[in-house]
Input
Amino acid sequence: MKAFILFIGVATFIGVLVLAVRQRKHARARFIDDFRFPPGVRERVRKRYPQLTDAQLERVMLGLTTWFQLSNTAGRAVLSMPSQAADVAWHEFILFTRNYRSFCSRALGRFLHHTPAEAMRTPTEAHEGIRRAWRLSCAREGIDPRNPARLPLLFALDADLGIADGFRYALDCGGMMAQRHADGTTYCASHIGCGSGGGDGGCSSDSGCSSDSGGDGGD
Output
């Protein structure tokens, strides 16, 4: 009887803990959606990509918001950035150091480090990060990761905006892993392998930057 009561107590405690974590993530997600980046971030992105219209710049900032939402969902798991344009916006935001640190504390409960993929511990870690980004992006936008009808925002952004140094992904690659075009390299979304958690990954280790799985503070 005592063992049963102890079991019920432990189960209840775990249930309350899980609920608290979910509520905290939901609160952070609302904060991220409502957050307005400093105007200087957008202007710095404009200087990097002067060809972008105001509407296109808004899409870049939406991509950055999406990145932080994915980071909130992923927690401390490694996550790789699929978009060069959103990565530039992220880097510019970090330069507003006090604002960025305060944002990270409220949005993620920790400081989110910007780690270039080539500086990650292993190529496998970078591959795992991009697979996780694909899986979470698809889930967020209601896309089947194994049979996508379209690309999620962060995976479509650079091609849609014509970013010269951007990362490009194709839905149907005809069996090839990656193909280099005049405007960069196109990676195969179908080879990222996020749906099953397997595969070699569709992106090389230089395709994007990653959030550090460590960081300051806890979730």
